[in-house]
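Slide 14.
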Amino acid sequence: MAKSLVIVESPAKAKTINKYLGRNYSVKASLGHVKDLPRKSISIVLPNEERPVKKGKKGAKKVAAKPAAPINPNKLFEPTYVVIPGKDKVVNDLRKAAATADSIYLAADPDREGEAICAHLAEVLSASKDSVFEGYTRPHNPWKKKKKPAEGEEAVADALPVAVDVPKDIRKRIFRVMFNEITPKAIRAAFDHAGQVDEHLVDAQQARRVLDRIVGYKISPLLWDKVRRGLSAGRVQTVALRLIVEREQEIKAFVPKEYWTIHARLEAGEPPVFEAKLFRHKGEEVEISNEAQATKILEELKRADWKVAELTQKEKRRYAPPPFTTSKIQQAAYNRLRYTTKRTMMIAQRLYEGVELGEEGSVALITYMRTDSTRVSDDALAQVREQIGKQYGENYLPEKPNFFKSKKGTQDAHEAIRPTDVSRTPEDVRRYLEDDQFKLYQLIWQRFVSSQMAPAVFDQTTIDVAAGDYIFRATGSVEKFAGWLSAYRSGEEDLEKGEDTEGEGRALPRVTQGEKLKLAAQKANGAEGLVPVRSEQHFTEPPPRYTEATLVKELEEKGIGRPSTYATIISTIVEREYINKEQGRITPTMLGEKVSVLLVKSFEDIFDIGFTARMEEELDEVEEGKLPWKQAVGEFYERFEKDLETARDEMQSYKKGIASSELCPKCEQGHLLERISRNGFFMGCDRYPDCDYTRDLSPELPAEAGTGSEACPECGKEMTIKRGRFGTFLACTGFPDCKTTRRLVQGTRTARQPDEILDEKCPDCGSPLVKRHGKYGEFIGCSTYPKCKYIRAKTLGIACPKCEKGELTQRMTRRGNRVFFGCNRYPECDFTTPFQPIVEPCPKCGAAFIVEKRLKTGAVRACIKDGCGWEVAAPEAQAQPLEAAVFVKS
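Slide 15: predicted structure.
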């Protein structure tokens, strides 16, 4: 009996599905797409296109381009797909298996991309033997040398692969199956309701591919001509870059505005002491713009009586957030785990396709992870409610399941991201998972369980304190019932717009309306802000730079791209070197900023945020069958073609130079042009070569011209900054007679200090030790490096609390993006902490040191010894309180 053939994208998914289908099915992987547009040509039928110029022999005159033959309107914008180079073996293996299968099931992911994969698989499986590899090119192998033909022989091109023959009626046996989760029940349901490839989904994917191809292949050569060869542009990526560049411009143009606040520390009849902030004056909100106004208010408060003007007590409920969508899991994984969007999606893909769980074999742990829906199936709701009652108690279970309203534009094609089996807790599978897999699964599990739990309840108290004509306000909120917070502590990505969390966790004393209050006694360290009444100076801050999480949030809110594309958008502009990521913050490179400004100016319509969002809506309409895909592409191309013609003539060129009004400081006759070379952007005189003045605009160096301040250690001549293939460096001005060079400390004009040989021996090999200056500062290592890689750790003088033999030292993660502290006896002792140790004993338990934690709510000092729990706010440098602030009413 012939087996049925099932084709999926990846071997991991194939292994998991094969376990559920049994021996009557053969599951194979296509390893992603099998067909795509060729790389060397646009391969799309466009209006008004000219035939390519014929290549003549070397030195011969080229033949002029001829007008294209009339284009069949029905063929307009149609792409030409070919088998991807290197996929010939995969295609032949699948055709061989399909030839003898009684049925063929295409089971790619349930989205546009998966539908396109299925459509292309159906094409290559049912194509005639002679047409399968039409247009196919073998993958380029730079190590393979082409054999030269012998004298008198003609060069023979590589032969096309020989295709496996298949029956002519094979198309009738091809079916499409879709499932949101890889579980026995979902797989059986999918095969019981097998259908055909959804042409509308394929059209939507094809429209996006054609649009992106047109933009990339038409604008990129323009950038090569105007800026630098090798650059590229993307329809959606350029808009994302525009957001980043415009945010950076906002930050640079931001002018801080001064304002002041007044705070009072008050005591009631019962503890604790609480702090209230000046809120109103004679019924109007207070705005204090300078020190003089603050001083005047403090003088008036000296004569005031303090009493409770109004007391408000109410019960506040915080409702559970919905289960994860793609954008929300990307934001949460970044904020909590510091995973990039690309890394998050890769880990989620593995959890969806299946991981080995011991004797159970390969098991899929989560549902499909590309979704914008918060919908959950009835079976999953019943299961999670049972789990909540069993694990947390019946009082954590709401009377009815929680349902969440979908946002505008949600496709709602799939469920939210959730565990396939909620009874499989993170602790149950931890020993089978890699660390990053466990953390992400735990996040998904906790979020899903919490989404169906009862709301958290807080007792919220607001005290308005009258001091003459002034009203101070203090807000406190104490948790009464944890509810869903027992399973999942919320973060910034969970807060709805306008949701107020001020005062949560702060207790206020019990007071009554009209009760008299008094100012708290001044503490000894009053300079640190613990005075009864104080004023504080502040300045408004610019909008923060994007992180990956906030950029994803912005893209989602503005309707740019779709959840499944966010990771690709960000990784693409990183790979193109248009942006940098420093300590999690995204900044545009100078190249990215210049390219963005040029493109937005020349293609204002195409790279407009609103227009890009509208295109996404049109692609959704194509998917729903409401709009023909060629019509959507045609409307786009009509506007694009006009902008492209204008840009070819009017776009400024950095290769030729962009004029400025700045006079050349060297010849004082010419004006400076902003230009680009292989080393980056620079300013140069327009009288070149008569005047050779240049000034580097690279951000690694200050903009001023001139040489470094170092003197050559060999000949005494001045050292100057030069650029080489490995970056900037100091070189002697006496070159070529003196060839002395020195490396620079990154981002400065200061030369790195030469290595200093120490009068100490390496404990590993006995060679002399050397003091060197590396990427992360000064260190001591072996002089025979790399033969001996000994490095002496710079300790903090704090004994390791775990082994009590080693000392704590500052270390860097492998990626170089995070500092942490650990024992210098590693790997014998694996103690680490991410917090800065401070050589002060714990006042509660007497531990040898405490740590300083930098939290979103502010810095705190704490003890990390198990069971201690001591924690206080860290003292921070604040503005000196005014003299008028230090007083106690007599």
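Speaker note: Confidence is low (pLDDT under 50) at residues 51-61, 524-529, 700-708, 876-890.
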